[in-house]
């Protein structure tokens, strides 16, 4: 019996062995075949995903910890082409809810699925509300037509929603010129967003994530971008912007700029200018900033400042000893410098004047004489020490350096010394002026304006330090000039004066250069002031472009300074001078 | 010869007993293999289940991080300068003028300094791995750790 079955067992054994051998041979053949690499790659493709982990963009805060730029979840809406049932419904839904172009969506959703065409992106930056509405519509359609066997039944099947973070600006327009914006591609443009784009964006990493739960690995910790704390005070910025807008309306100006700075540290507390953009609608940039309008006039637009520049001419002359506050000058109404006749703003002769009188009445003739007393070399050495003709180094993108012609330049003439002394023929930015004048308000030490107070990287806060750009004048000169300018405002009963607070300042009215010479019909009106005089805590620079109600800085810019200071003292908790002294004594 | 045969017969086991021994041995091996396979399957299943849980947790972390960012931004919108001014106005507050502010000396009061959003540089920040070893080490790693590495003290020293 055993012999009877032996051949059967033997046959079965041989067959099974042959089968096993065949499988082994086939496995070996596949392993060493020319297609082996392709097959391995295909296998790899299904075993996991190569994912780019993009860290959240760093946030931007004001000096009080208020969020100025954060992130919010938005969605990319796309379609899985193999699941699309009705491209028409998808196009209609996207058009109605997101506002996408019907034809574009229809074309994208109608693509035949293939190995190359699996997914199509339909729209980005879709809000959570829009996504919810689309999902609701999809659900309602499924409920109403889900059982229908019709070929073209309405359906949003195939729609997918991929969440991601996008920049969001809770303060909308407030401080927009300082912040800049981030495009849909995640790149920062203008202001802080451009200047610190690399730090804010962080470092994206490519990671292979296995779908096999047995091969799950610790994912690399991709830290968020660096967060920034700015020197800007949100409340001051907002108030200053309101005052600026009102000033433009009241003075009929074309544009305006106000810079508020702490003269001791260089902290920019507010930097308001026009036009401003709601940063959450950054795509409207082109319609708001037309004809190469600068994004931030305070740092990018150069102009001839006019009489506010006299502060620096006088500072240089006092510091060098060329004049003293009580030096007498006989104003005859005109002076010739380098063949150019210079007149006063009113073309009048003001007779004998001290230097205080020259500043008080803003006499061009006197300041041109002061510059000649100082001589060209020394005058321009001082102006260079004040930082003109080069960048201030403020940490914002798009700063302009302006232009200061100096002896030796091909286009410098001796006549320039006379006109430069009262702010004509030099191109400066408001931030350059604020930095230069900070030397007068800060014991002769000129500070570099700064916008970033601290960096917060991986939960560690790194504070920046105030930087001294130089000491163009002595502390004694700074005090003398501050006293002169405070007195001149008081003697003139300037409308820049703030009751209860002693401030120093200077007005400026500059004619605008045209291809055919200077025009008196249009001016730049400015005012620079600081205070309280015995312990300066703010420096305010006001610039109104082409005011129409009055051309004079003393009429249109000085009251703006007063309005700003009246709000500043409240927001910065600066008591009235008498109270402050009493509190300090205690 | 017969004697030897008788002795061998006397001490040799019955065929049915030998068969039973073989069957027993086979069953023992089978049970051992089944046991090892069972343990392996159980451990693998648990590892897979934990792996899935980790994958789900990673997705949850991403979702929560987005949610945190959203909430922070939403809060900032609700407390933005314009919104706060509007709310203050609705509640009857007025902008204070410089002459209306009264400053007084409060002994011991220190004006709040710079905003703090992170620890100062140099301070220790614990850098812990996100996954504990239980999720990554193999059975052999675990055994090696238990056998070769010194056991943790029963009572840990507590420092004040």
| Uncertain stretches of chain A | none
End-to-end gap of chain B? 89 Å
Low-confidence stretches of chain B at least 5 residues in length (pLDDT < 50)?
154-160
- The helicity of chain A comes to 25-40%
- How many DSSP-defined strands of chain B? 0
Strand content of chain A: 15-25%
> Average pLDDT across residues of chain A?
93
Cα end-to-end separation of chain A: 123 Å
Radius of gyration of chain A: 35 Å
Quaternary organisation of the protein chains = heterodimer
Largest sheet of chain A: 7 strands, mixed
Mass-distribution shape of chain A = elongated
Annotation keywords:
heterodimer; A: 586 residues; alpha+beta; seven-stranded mixed sheet; five-stranded antiparallel sheet; 22 strands; B: mainly alpha; 4 helices; 59% helix; disordered C terminus
Plain-language structure description:
The complex is a heterodimer of chains A (586) and B (160). Chain A is α+β, with helices and mostly antiparallel strands and 586 residues long. Chain A has 21 helices and 22 strands. In chain A, helix 9 (234-251) runs antiparallel to helix 20 (558-571), helix 12 crosses helix 18 (475-491) and helix 14 packs across helix 16. Chain A is elongated and about 145 Å long. The termini of chain A are far apart. In chain A, 46% of the residues are buried. Chain B has a domain at 2-88. Chain B has helices at 2-11, 15-78, 81-90, 139-148. Mean pLDDT of chain B is 83; it is low at 154-160. Classes of the chains: A alpha+beta (586), B mainly alpha (160).
């Amino acid at each position: 019996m055993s012999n009877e079955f032996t051949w059967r067992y033997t046959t079965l054994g041989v067959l099974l062995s042959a089968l096993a051998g065949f499988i082994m041979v086939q496995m070996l053949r596949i392993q060493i075949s020319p297609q082996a690499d392709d097959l391995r790659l295909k296998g790899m493709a299904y075993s996991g995903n190569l994912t780019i982990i993009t860290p959240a963009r760093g946030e931007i805060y004001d000096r009080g910890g208020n969020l100025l730029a954060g992130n919010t979840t938005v969605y990319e809406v796309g379609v899985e082409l193999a699941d699309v049932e009705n491209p028409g419904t998808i196009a209609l839904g996207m058009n109605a809810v997101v506002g996408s172009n019907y034809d574009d969506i229809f074309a994208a959703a109608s693509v035949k699925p293939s190995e190359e065409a699996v997914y199509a992106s339909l729209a980005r930056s879709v809000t959570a509300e829009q996504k919810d509405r689309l999902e609701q519509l999809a659900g309602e359609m499924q409920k109403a037509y889900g059982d229908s066997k019709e070929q073209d039944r309405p359906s949003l099947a195939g729609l997918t929603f991929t969440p991601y973070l996008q920049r969001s600006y809770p303060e909308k327009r407030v401080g927009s010129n300082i912040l800049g914006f981030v495009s849909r591609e995640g790149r920062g443009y203008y202001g802080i967003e451009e200047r610190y784009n690399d730090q804010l964006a962080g470092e994206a990493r490519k990671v292979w994530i296995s779908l096999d739960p047995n091969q799950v690995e610790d994912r690399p910790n991709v830290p968020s971008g660096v967060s920034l704390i700015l020197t800007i005070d949100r409340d001051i910025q907002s108030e200053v912007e309101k005052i600026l807008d009102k000033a433009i309306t009241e003075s009929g100006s074309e544009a305006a700029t106000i810079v508020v700075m702490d003269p001791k540290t260089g902290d920019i507390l507010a930097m308001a200018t026009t036009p401003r953009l709601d940063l959450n609608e950054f795509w409207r940039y082109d319609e708001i900033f037309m004809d190469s309008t600068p994004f931030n006039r305070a740092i990018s637009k150069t102009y001839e400042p006019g009489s506010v520049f006299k502060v620096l001419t006088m500072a240089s002359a006092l510091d060098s000893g060329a004049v003293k506050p009580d030096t007498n000058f006989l104003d005859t109404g005109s002076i010739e410098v380098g063949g150019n006749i210079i007149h006063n703003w009113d073309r009048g002769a003001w007779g004998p004047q001290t230097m205080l009188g020259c500043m008080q009445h803003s006499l061009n003739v006197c300041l041109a004489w002061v510059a000649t007393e100082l001589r060209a070399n020394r005058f321009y050495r001082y102006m260079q020490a004040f930082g003109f003709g080069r960048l201030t180094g403020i940490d914002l993108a798009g700063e302009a350096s302006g232009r200061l012609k100096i002896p030796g330049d091909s286009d410098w003439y001796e006549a320039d010394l006379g006109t430069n002394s009262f702010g004509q023929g030099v191109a400066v930015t408001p931030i350059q002026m604020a930095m230069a004048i900070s030397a007068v308000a800060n014991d002769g030490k000129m500070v570099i304006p700064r916008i970033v107070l601290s960096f917060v990287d991986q939960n560690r806060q790194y504070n920046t330090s105030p930087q001294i750009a130089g000491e163009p004048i002595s502390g004694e000169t700074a005090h003398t000039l501050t006293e002169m300018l405070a007195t001149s405002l008081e003697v003139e009963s300037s409308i820049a004066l703030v009751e209860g607070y002693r401030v120093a300042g200077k007005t400026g009215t500059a004619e605008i250069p045209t291809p055919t010479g200077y025009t008196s019909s249009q001016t730049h009106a400015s005012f620079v002031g600081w205070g309280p005089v015995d312990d300066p805590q703010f420096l305010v620079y006001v610039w109104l472009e082409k005011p129409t109600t009055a051309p004079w800085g003393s009429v249109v810019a000085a009251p703006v300074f007063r309005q700003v200071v009246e709000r500043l003292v409240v927001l910065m908790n600066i008591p009235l001078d008498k109270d402050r002294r009493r509190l300090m004594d205690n | 010869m017969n004697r030897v045969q008788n002795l061998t017969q006397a001490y040799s086991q019955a065929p049915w007993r030998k068969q039973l021994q073989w069957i027993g041995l086979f069953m023992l091996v089978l049970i051992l293999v089944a046991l090892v396979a069972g343990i392996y399957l159980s451990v693998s299943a648990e590892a897979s289940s934990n792996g899935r849980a980790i994958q789900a947790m990673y997705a949850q972390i991403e979702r929560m991080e987005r949610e945190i960012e959203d909430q922070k931004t939403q809060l900032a919108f609700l407390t933005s300068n314009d919104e706060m001014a509007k709310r203050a106005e609705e509640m009857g507050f007025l902008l204070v003028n410089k002459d209306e502010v009264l400053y007084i000396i409060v002994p011991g009061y220190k004006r709040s300094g710079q905003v703090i959003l992170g620890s100062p540089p140099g301070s220790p920040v614990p850098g812990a791995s996100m996954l504990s070893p239980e999720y990554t080490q193999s059975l052999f790693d675990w055994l090696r750790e238990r056998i070769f590495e010194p056991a943790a003290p029963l009572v840990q020293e507590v420092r004040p």
